[in-house]
Amino acid sequence: MEVYAGQHQTECLQYSELVPDWTEHEVNTGTTIMAVEFNGGVVIGADSRTTTGAYIANRVTDKLTPIHDRIFCCRSGSAADTQAIADAVTYQLGFHSIVMDEPPLVQTAANLFRQLCYRYRELMTAGIIVAGWDNRHGGQVYTVPVGGMLVRQPVAVGGSGSSYIYGFVDSTYKPGMTKEECLRFTGQALALAMERDGSSGGVARLAAITQAGLERSVILGNQLPKFPTA
C-alpha cells in the first residue's frame, strides 16, 4: 500500500506541474480605458487585451459596453464582475426609461453603477467609466473607481495602463477640443499605454457618441500612432 500511495502521489505531482499557473488566476480586463467630453458629445476608447495572470486570454475583447442607445461604459478590473454589473445596470436603466417614457440621463446610469460598485465593493473588482449624451446635459463623462465613488470629469482614464499616460493626458488635453481632436487624442493616449503596459494591447477601439448617434472605429495594432523614443 505504501508503494502504491507513493506512486499515486508522484503521478499527481507530475500532473500539477503540467497544468499552467494561469488556469488558477481570475480573468481580468487589465486594461486601458479613456473618455473625453467635447462640445456636442463624448469620445470613448479602450484597448482589447484580456489577461489571466501573464496569459493573454483574449486579444480582441470589446470593453466599450452599450448601456443604452447613447450611453456606454468602459470596463476595467475583473471581466466577470464588470460584465455582471453592466448587465444589471442595462436591465434597470431599460425599465427606468420605460417608466419615464423618455431616454435615460447619463447621470442616472452613472448613479446606478455607483450604487452597485459601492454595495459590492468588498466582493467585486470593477473600475468603470460611464460616458454618453442626453438632451438635458449633453455629453458627460463619469468615473466610478474601485470602491464606488462617483466623479464627473471632462477627461477620464482608468485601468492598469492609465498610470503610464497621466502626464501625456494632463499636458495634451485642452478644453474645447473638437470631436476629431478628441479621437486623435484618445488614440494617441491608448497607443502610449499599450506600448508600456503589459496588460494592455491588441487593437484600440474608439467611439464617438453625439445627438446623432454612435460612430465606432478601430485602430489595428499595425496602425497605432508611433512615438519617437530616446
Main-sheet strand order equals: 11-2-3-12-13
Query: What is the string of helix and strand elements?
Result: HEEEEEEEHHEEEEHHEE
**What is the overall pLDDT average?**
88
Identify the quaternary structure here: single chain
Stretches where pLDDT falls below 50 for ≥5 residues? none
* Total number of helices: 5
Distance between the termini: 66 Å
Q: Let me know the number of strands.
A: 13
Assign an overall shape.
Answer: globular
Strand content: 25-35%
Supply the helix-strand structural class. Answer: alpha+beta
* CA-atom Rg in angstroms: 20 Å
The largest sheet is: 5 strands, antiparallel
Determine the fraction of residues in helical runs and give it as a percent range: 25-40%
In short:
By secondary structure, this protein is of the alpha+beta class. The chain is 34% helix and 30% strand.
Features:
230 residues, 5-stranded antiparallel β-sheet
Would you write up a description of this structure?
The chain has five helices and 13 strands. It has helices at residues 2-18, 79-100, 106-119, 166-172, 179-196, and strands at residues 27-28, 33-38, 41-46, 50-52, 55-58, 64-68, 71-77, 126-134, 138-144, 151-152, 155-158, 204-210, 213-219. A five-stranded antiparallel β-sheet has the order 11-2-3-12-13, with helices on one face. The N and C termini lie far apart (66 Å). The mean pLDDT is 88.
